[in-house]
Prior knowledge:
It is a single chain. The chain has 2 domains: 1-31, no CATH class; 42-143, Glycolipid transfer protein, GLTP (Orthogonal Bundle), CATH 1.10.3520. It is 72% helix and 0% strand. The longest helix is centred in the last third of the chain and has 29 residues, at 115-143. It has 7 helices and no strands. The protein is mostly helical. The model has no long low-confidence stretch (mean pLDDT 78).
Amino acid sequence: INIGVLKNASEADHTLVFVADLIVQDRKTRRPPEKWYNSRDLVRVKRSIAMLRVIFEQILKNNREDSLTGPVNVAYDNILAPYHSYIANRFVHLFTMVEDLPTMEKLLEQLGETWDSAVDHMDRYVQASNMLQTTLRTYLTHMG
């Protein structure tokens, strides 16, 4: 999905149908089967929003825990694992154990944030994402 297209569309007052049509017209994705037309990329956006929401919820719940491995694994298990094979699930868990995810402290430093400002941003994202999820769910249901 081309984020620039979504960003430009969000600045204008357009509908999700218009955004999906722009993506297809811009040929940034290959046209999916007619049955999935306009919905495949929206499902990916929906899952990405949900994944980030769960990561932020876990970080907020674990208040100042420095490791991101736990929140990432919980988010993956809840959001993406049901759509992946057993092998893919094992690979993701092995990857998060072997690969060095940055610590929360290092991530905040790289983003130029403090814990308090990050908590505020994460909390606002969690609240806003619930509304976005509801909107996307409704839209995808009506696309049938």
